[in-house]
Amino acid sequence: MQDYITVGMLNSYITRLLDHDSRLQDFWLKGEISGFRLYQQSGHMYFTLKDKESSVSCVMFKTKGQNLKFRPEDGMEVLLRGYVSVFGRQGKYQVYVQEMQPYGMGGLFLYLEKLKTRLAEEGYFAMERKKDIPRIVNRVGVVTSQDGAALRDILRVIKQRHPGVEVVIAHSSVQGTEAPRELAQGVQCLNEYGDVDVIIVGRGGGSLEDLMAFNSEELVYAIYNSCIPVISAVGHEVDFSLCDLAADLRAATPTQAAQYAVPEYCLLQRELESLTDRMTRFMIRNLSSREERLDRSMMKKIWKEPRLLLEKKDELLKDKVKRLKKAMDDKTNEEKHHLAMAAAGLDNLSPLRVMTRGYAILNKGERVIKDINEVNIGDELQADMSNGKLQVVIKCKEKVNRWKS
Amino acid sequence: MQGESEPMEKLSFDGALKRLEDIVEQLESGQLTLEESLAVFEEGVKLSLYCQKELKKTDGKVHTLLKKLNGELELIELEI
Questions:
Q1: In a domain, B3, yes or no
Q2: Whole-structure pTM value
Q3: Least crowded by CB within 10 Å, which of A40, A62, A145, B40?
Q4: Domain of A292?
């Protein structure tokens, strides 16, 4: 019978070997992620890291993985720090990952690009959400490092432009693992405090890696949820950080951010004076033009000699009366003439006039006799003449045809 | 009359400045009666004074905002 060892002994032996090799206990490893799985319950991450020829299993426990600044995905090139040990149950060695970051500029850019696309799709950069920066502020909130050059620049500009503006600083580290959380908390804190009119979030320049804190989802969420307008001031010209995209206004440098936040006092003063001037000038013009109109009316002769007004009226009245009288006279004369004419006509037709020429009217009682047949011999009639009456008796009757020859 | 104004103390500087601009425009349009002109002019003068006052506020302190352990916020004046 050969001597033998158990599987467990083998694995323990190998484990001890590996554990005692200091080179395997802390190293940086580069490769491409594949088969990435995040177990929701435990929060541990499992994946294979590979390059062209080889692959190795990796595990990143929740306690380490929760500080990751990005979401690992298959195909992503990463640089990770870890140690090697043996997973005895499967008899395989694996890398226990302590920290991990996208590899190189390429990896970082790729990661940022993806994150940017996703956040943009989710609406965190939407233009219609952008708030206006107030034209004048009493208090400026600043989220940055209390010891950084950015803060000094901001304070200098604000003092220059308007010494009356107060500054409230929410101190935060601006790089390193704590920075994303602290920056986001700074924005939240100033919102909670509430009494600032605008918030500047930023730092001076730095490499892309230095500025990664300004590319965190946490900060984007905090800025998006801020009720106070946010100016981003991440000092880099070329690329936009996610903080820039989420902010209501992007400044290239902290100095510029302060200039955006605090307008030049004297410009504002001049604008205000100009408005006030225009208003006053107009009002004066407005009033004097009305005064002039009033004056011009008052200058009319009539106001100086109101008697003229009466005289004129009197004249007018007299004239009217005269004309009325004349019209009345004319009318009367005309009517008189008509009447005379009518009277003359009437006179010719009057029976009295006829009677003066020798005619008499024969009446029998009340009736006028026009026909000899109406009377009998012996009837007593009355003859009316122009100057009296006669009682006559009919002696005889003889019919005469006067109008027929 | 359009644009009835809010009480002055509720106006922000920007709001007051905007209202003042509106008033100047209204006046210059020349479409107001004398009474209306006088009313908005009076308001304009008040707005102007208010804006001047706001501009001249001079505290200019620098504070740092601290979150205490009990979650309360505290302002501490900084010497710069």
A1: no
A2: 0.57
A3: A40
A4: 267-299
pLDDT band at residue B2 using 50, 70 and 90 as cut-offs: very low
Quote the CA–CA distance of A168 and A143 in Å, as a whole number. Answer: 9
Residues A84 and A155 in one domain: no
Q: How far apart are CA A10 and CA B3, in angstroms?
A: 88
Query: Which residues touch A363 (CB under 8 Å, ≥6 apart)?
Result: A369, A381, A382, A383, A384
CA atoms within 13 A on the CB side of A231: 26
Residues of chain A with C-beta less than 8 angstroms from the C-beta of B55: 136, 164, 265, 268-269, 272
Average pLDDT score over chain A: 88
Is residue A127 a part of any domain in this protein? no
Q: In the structure encoding, which two tokens stand for residue B42, read together? A: 């009076």
pLDDT digits (tens, 9 = 90+) for A53-80: 999 999 999 998 887 877 888 888 899 9
Same structural domain, A210 and A253:
yes
Nearest to A268 among B55, B61, B63 (CB): B55
The tens digit of pLDDT for each residue in A221-261 reads 999 999 999 999 987 655 678 999 999 999 989 999 999 99
Question: Total structural domains in chain B?
Answer: 1
Kindly report the CA angle at B13 between B7 and B19, in degrees rounded to 5? 60
Stretch (H or E) spanning A288: helix A265-299
Q: Is A164's CB within 8 Å of B65's CB?
A: no
- Tell me how far apart the alpha carbons of residues A22 and A395 are, in angstroms, rounded to a whole number: 193
Same domain as A168, residue A246: yes
CA angle B21, A231, A143 (to 5 degrees): 130
Would you list the DSSP string of A315-365?
Answer: HHHHHHHHHHHHHHHHHHHHHHHHHHHHHHHHHHH-HHHHHHTT--EEEET
